Amino acid sequence: MADSSLISVEEIKKHNTIEDCWLVVNDEVWDLSEFAPDHPGGGEIIYKHAGRDASLSYNGIHAQSVLSSNLDSSKLIGALDKRSVTDEWSKPPPSATPELKLHDKPPLETIMNSQDFEDVAQRTVTKKTWAFYSSADTDCLTRDRNREFFGRMWFRPRLLRDVKRVDTSTTILGHAAGAPFFVSPAAMAKLVHPDGERAMARGCVPNRIPQGISSNASFPIEEIVSAVPKDKNHPFFFQLYVNKDRSKSEALLKHVRALGVDVCFATIDAPQAGKREADERVKADEGVAAPMSGAKASNDKKGGGMGRLMGGYIDPSFVWADMTWLRRHWPGKIVVKGVQSWQDAKMSADLGIHVLLSNHGGRNLDTSPPAIMTLLECQMNCPEIFSQIEVLVDGGIRRGSDILKCLCLGATAVGLGRPFLYATNYGQEGVEHLVEILKSELETAMALVGVTSIDQCQPGLV
Amino acid sequence: MADSSLISVEEIKKHNTIEDCWLVVNDEVWDLSEFAPDHPGGGEIIYKHAGRDASLSYNGIHAQSVLSSNLDSSKLIGALDKRSVTDEWSKPPPSATPELKLHDKPPLETIMNSQDFEDVAQRTVTKKTWAFYSSADTDCLTRDRNREFFGRMWFRPRLLRDVKRVDTSTTILGHAAGAPFFVSPAAMAKLVHPDGERAMARGCVPNRIPQGISSNASFPIEEIVSAVPKDKNHPFFFQLYVNKDRSKSEALLKHVRALGVDVCFATIDAPQAGKREADERVKADEGVAAPMSGAKASNDKKGGGMGRLMGGYIDPSFVWADMTWLRRHWPGKIVVKGVQSWQDAKMSADLGIHVLLSNHGGRNLDTSPPAIMTLLECQMNCPEIFSQIEVLVDGGIRRGSDILKCLCLGATAVGLGRPFLYATNYGQEGVEHLVEILKSELETAMALVGVTSIDQCQPGLV
Amino acid sequence: MADSSLISVEEIKKHNTIEDCWLVVNDEVWDLSEFAPDHPGGGEIIYKHAGRDASLSYNGIHAQSVLSSNLDSSKLIGALDKRSVTDEWSKPPPSATPELKLHDKPPLETIMNSQDFEDVAQRTVTKKTWAFYSSADTDCLTRDRNREFFGRMWFRPRLLRDVKRVDTSTTILGHAAGAPFFVSPAAMAKLVHPDGERAMARGCVPNRIPQGISSNASFPIEEIVSAVPKDKNHPFFFQLYVNKDRSKSEALLKHVRALGVDVCFATIDAPQAGKREADERVKADEGVAAPMSGAKASNDKKGGGMGRLMGGYIDPSFVWADMTWLRRHWPGKIVVKGVQSWQDAKMSADLGIHVLLSNHGGRNLDTSPPAIMTLLECQMNCPEIFSQIEVLVDGGIRRGSDILKCLCLGATAVGLGRPFLYATNYGQEGVEHLVEILKSELETAMALVGVTSIDQCQPGLV
Amino acid sequence: MADSSLISVEEIKKHNTIEDCWLVVNDEVWDLSEFAPDHPGGGEIIYKHAGRDASLSYNGIHAQSVLSSNLDSSKLIGALDKRSVTDEWSKPPPSATPELKLHDKPPLETIMNSQDFEDVAQRTVTKKTWAFYSSADTDCLTRDRNREFFGRMWFRPRLLRDVKRVDTSTTILGHAAGAPFFVSPAAMAKLVHPDGERAMARGCVPNRIPQGISSNASFPIEEIVSAVPKDKNHPFFFQLYVNKDRSKSEALLKHVRALGVDVCFATIDAPQAGKREADERVKADEGVAAPMSGAKASNDKKGGGMGRLMGGYIDPSFVWADMTWLRRHWPGKIVVKGVQSWQDAKMSADLGIHVLLSNHGGRNLDTSPPAIMTLLECQMNCPEIFSQIEVLVDGGIRRGSDILKCLCLGATAVGLGRPFLYATNYGQEGVEHLVEILKSELETAMALVGVTSIDQCQPGLV
């Protein structure tokens, strides 16, 4: 190597980021930016030495030739100019540099789908947050089947249709929406981002994606609703856990209604909380609380299950007859959330109440049926309900093609819960990005089965 | 690091337990209590050095920076005060300290489900005990499918029912029980705990869980029955292997009856023992014996299979006609244990004899059908039997939801065998804990499918 | 070891290739040619030291005895003659010697099936080429099921037929062919070999395998067609993406027709490109372009997906009615490529247009149905079409037995896309080799189900 | 440790076998006999040091405390008496000691099932032998499904029958047999044992298991038949590949007949050899030959596939009409081997010729149907054939329960091929042991489904 190609420490030090990552190994300077993510031992150990001399760590693990035999020679920048070495530079790297932490999130533009968001969340949120969000009842069979069942359904595409213009816009429960999906209400979004549900709201605005707000949201509902300028008239749905003390629910409903919200999801699948063992095994931070419901995280001898311990106020005596009570206190639209059998769906339709087929993300009763299965049973046993009420669906939806399958089988729209929580890890921009991804996937799927608007979806396509 | 934060050896030595575990690595003091269970190399090597200097072991495996890059800086307690180091403290740790052994059981309160009990047993009981308990016939297909089949059945929950009060109590074979499950008779509980079946009995009392007692129990039945105060009137079921020498069985029945036991399980699925290869491969301790049946563990040229070698006295000529004989010698209730086809279940019902659908935990004939499958075949081919006799079920039941599925399909109650053996690893407290877990899981499942008492269970829910 | 068996460095240096690979380890000379491919640590590290002293690397990893205890003693050639050692020879091996590179292709004669070609391609082509060729829409479920579905179909062989002479020749779309398969048109073969589609063409000649040429081929069609001597009269099929600017398509069709090509595949399953995430994640080389369509590789904020970015000119408004337009500009045979439902197949048959059942290798819509499934649905719902038009099939075909199954179910011939791309990695010889493999596998399968010519295939055999 | 417990090298050296294996590690003497098979790094490295000082190897891998923390203290025999150490003893162990070789077979009495035999064979036979025996056509789907399909069939046991005496004896093709199974003819048993088919014959005698002899056996048939004393009247079946030169087949049949053999299996599923890629990839030893057929192992440009290269003489023109020819030259019983569809089975029954449902162990046509599937199709489509001819079955049978399932579905007897080859690895004793295992498993399975003789088997039990 000619003397002219010697690289100075001054130069090397500049390349100290994930995107631009040089290392010195035994006096050779290598550009490992591209290789690092594929490093069998993980990228972190490489990033740790970005812009530095990694010889010591390297030689403890690898033979001298591993680098040169695994990398293209174009990645060898040159030889270290040893005269430029300083004492400061030679020190071992500090244990954690702010820009290169083990738990750093990759840039948002590298996130391609909802699974990417989930993977990043698993690596970067706290153990407790991950346990609370990702856990489900006992053996998590329902949670996992929720997703798998979509992969087992085949389309029957109809091609050679003009699909130049594909339009995903629709109306959900009386509200115009940019796409046939909404944020399924999920608790405690602040655990993943300081702006929590407020960031979510702002991220939903550009495409008019309705946001379901949980009784156990991290913020009072007025703070969430006010995150969006009033003139946007953004659609919000309120999710209610009926309180053992009905007067508290009545007051809450009145308060919500006063904010202009006109859709109420009455959750019926949680008279008792499921046993989310991963959640129980991690101690909860007792400072966490839900301002609207007043629920607080705590720990007892069964463990630190936030789902269980925050659900103590929910009334297990809430029954069909109470719908009269609910109607009295809620003049807007009512949706029962958590219907899991075609019989209950039909009963609800007979009462003129909309349904959200849902198993609570598999969180409450393991081996409760995936919603897509209940939806199919409705098509077989009581197809008339689809013209009587709106049938919504959630659970396991991760792709635009999943959404399209639900619509073909009669759903008005679908909800996504965990994906929005994981996207909120990136704040408002993350939520916007997720919406764009899902909408784009849906458009592609629609074009490729040969439909251009939501109302063209029909069972023959699946 | 300021001098004021130096930590003395006196202080460090105090943090020498699994719950509170400090280590010194290269003169830094770290709190590894939380990290240790996640250590890729296992927690034991960390616990071994609790309260000590682990530098030597550490440096042999890890680069200096591994600790600081993987742990939150809050776990770094401070720097070692080198002046406080003593010769005694610097020695390598003894090879095994009583409180930190590799095979130590985790605290009972961290056990969340029956699988946890099983995992602990696998790690902590002797090789032979594990082989004897866990093994099954040849390729273990039936044993494994027993469990899997429950995961493939879906509920059809009915919600918006008042489930404030869920009551699991029921009557099994004439005995009031706190929950619709019982201890399936299994042999030789002493292998896992010195109090064996006696500890089990005591653990069953608080919730009135009937205990089935095997002919091959580790204790004579009178010692098991007397482990519970007489005034508790605790329900016991006696499991009989009919002896080739009928007079011995007659004497035994008379003896059992005299103790006040009025239910007899006549085991019919073991005219020949299955081939439990894992059991055969481990030499048996020839001192082990079952006092009631007189069976003794031994070894022969086929191996050390306790199941096979202790079953030599069982009469393979026991036939349906012999039920007359049994009735003559047993005025109480009779249950044939090990029915595996709907035809046999119907034959038993015609004779007015109760059945326990069971494949002996998959231990006798591989690819014999899971009991839940036989139960379904009964529902399809001879539903009338459910009003004629009690149909019990065992095999693969591990969750409250599994229990509920059996009840919905017509079973009066279900038995659990291995889970109770593994819980007995913790003695009476372990058994109580398991009962609480199962009962609590059952209550949750009942509430979430919308039933509040055992008699509301019906096939439409599955 | 006798002095007479000392081996000189001069001798050792000769054995420095993959096929003939000696190494010196601690003064013993070993022949590792046979062992190297099985080396748990990979063969490369061994090849790197071929003909050299590997002691240093070896001792860093293995105990002295590993070699002698794992290898037959016949592999120990003898002891190193230390007097022959030179300074030059003792140096560590260069980081990459031309004949032993990590990414070297194994000799063509060791390639036994299409999977071998794929495995080699994965190791030896550029990251971008692999990503572009192998990727498919979103979760790649359709791509993978395409293959799996063939493994789930069983033959019903009829034996004791005279199968001395098995003849695979047939007629495809009016052209005599040596076997009932063709190259499915796939884009950009130059990425894998400088001669790209031209090498493919030459490799197809010996067995008269028709070649489908993509609109996005790396060469202008005239250069591909002219790669084969005119007097061979080799069959080529032209695959058209209809351009938003129809006049461009018209000019292209005219040009193609003038070259003597008389079959046009009109692709209908790509009105919008699928989301091939693996392709998007790798930056495209912006120098790459398709001369016929004018499409160019590029990168945008969504990523570097060549499939998406090169498909921008495709007209999503192309509909059934446009078949009239196509017929006007193409007097030859027309095949609609990408039919995915029996309804569309029937519609095409009604118009007298041939079909290629295809899901574009799973690249456009995930969970679109495997073509073999659509073929079965055609047999069930509209069997009459098989006598009206030719039904071709592609997707997931890798074995001669796969081809036979399609023929039995009514297909005239089948296409293979990726396998031909991966074979082109070896140029013309690779393509010839693949054709021979497939034809030979097909002959064997035909003989073993008891048919000797293509027209004897019938549904009862599957 | 008291001086009295010091162990001398003289003593230690005695414990140098697999069964009794002591090692010295850092001056402590450990008994590792029991632990060695569970050693994560394999038992061989431990056996290599049996009776020796293993400190050097040990310390290179493990921390000092690993032994003491993983093993019961009872395994610590004592401390090394250092005064007894000799120079000879201190040397590193030789690379391979006869009694402790890597490829040593475990004692026969530790073999519990046919899978154990297979596992040992995989480790101990030559690469080529393993490739030839274990390989199957292309992707080996049929070979693997052959086994799996048995695991998916459930018994419907009928209990409380008198099963004191279970009798497995039966008549196969006119010959009394001790159990309803026979050796399926397989080629070249000498590859696995010098006595090859002769050892097999002797191992079959005690239980009167008929032996099928392949045309490609390693010995001339007269040498195999004569391995058993004439007065045993042992049943042999001759398997014929019809030669392209019929006169050769005629001569061979005459010769075989003269030896008193009266059953001929005419193989019909090998008009062309399958593509056994594992076999092709390993070079054949060209010295290997089959004396009866004259077939010789060789290598060509396709590879070293013994199956393919030795099958060149087989006549692919052999057809149903030729049965007349065969009958003329074979007055004894005729079985067509390799029937794979119920139609062919029926055709054979119409001709009064017995059938062996077989797919040649999956070796010839991948995705040809498992014989148990063809057997089921016969039960459904042509049940009458079971009273007209004997229906035999082979392929994937490894357990007594597999045998029983075939019998229940109408088979007279079943054949096992590979299991007998793998058992021959242990010579005559191995074959006897395998027969005992299978017979014992069958007896157990019969008792547990409630039958005591072969003629009681019926479809309702499966």
TrEMBL record, chains A, B, C, D:
<keyword id="KW-0479">Metal-binding</keyword>
<keyword id="KW-0285">Flavoprotein</keyword>
<feature type="domain" description="Cytochrome b5 heme-binding">
    <location>
        <begin position="4"/>
        <end position="81"/>
    </location>
</feature>
<dbReference type="Pfam" id="PF00173">
    <property type="entry name" value="Cyt-b5"/>
</dbReference>
<dbReference type="GO" id="GO:0004460">
    <property type="term" value="F:L-lactate dehydrogenase (cytochrome) activity"/>
</dbReference>
<keyword id="KW-0560">Oxidoreductase</keyword>
<dbReference type="GO" id="GO:0005758">
    <property type="term" value="C:mitochondrial intermembrane space"/>
</dbReference>
<feature type="domain" description="FMN hydroxy acid dehydrogenase">
    <location>
        <begin position="106"/>
        <end position="462"/>
    </location>
</feature>
<comment type="similarity">
    <text>In the C-terminal section; belongs to the FMN-dependent alpha-hydroxy acid dehydrogenase family.</text>
</comment>
<dbReference type="InterPro" id="IPR037396">
    <property type="entry name" value="FMN_HAD"/>
</dbReference>
<keyword id="KW-0349">Heme</keyword>
<dbReference type="InterPro" id="IPR036400">
    <property type="entry name" value="Cyt_B5-like_heme/steroid_sf"/>
</dbReference>
<protein>
    <recommendedName>
        <fullName>L-lactate dehydrogenase (cytochrome)</fullName>
        <ecNumber>1.1.2.3</ecNumber>
    </recommendedName>
</protein>
<dbReference type="InterPro" id="IPR000262">
    <property type="entry name" value="FMN-dep_DH"/>
</dbReference>
<comment type="similarity">
    <text>In the N-terminal section; belongs to the cytochrome b5 family.</text>
</comment>
<dbReference type="InterPro" id="IPR013785">
    <property type="entry name" value="Aldolase_TIM"/>
</dbReference>
<dbReference type="GO" id="GO:0046872">
    <property type="term" value="F:metal ion binding"/>
</dbReference>
<dbReference type="InterPro" id="IPR001199">
    <property type="entry name" value="Cyt_B5-like_heme/steroid-bd"/>
</dbReference>
<keyword id="KW-0288">FMN</keyword>
<keyword id="KW-0408">Iron</keyword>
<dbReference type="InterPro" id="IPR037458">
    <property type="entry name" value="L-MDH/L-LDH_FMN-bd"/>
</dbReference>
<keyword id="KW-0496">Mitochondrion</keyword>
<comment type="subunit">
    <text>Homotetramer.</text>
</comment>
<dbReference type="Pfam" id="PF01070">
    <property type="entry name" value="FMN_dh"/>
</dbReference>
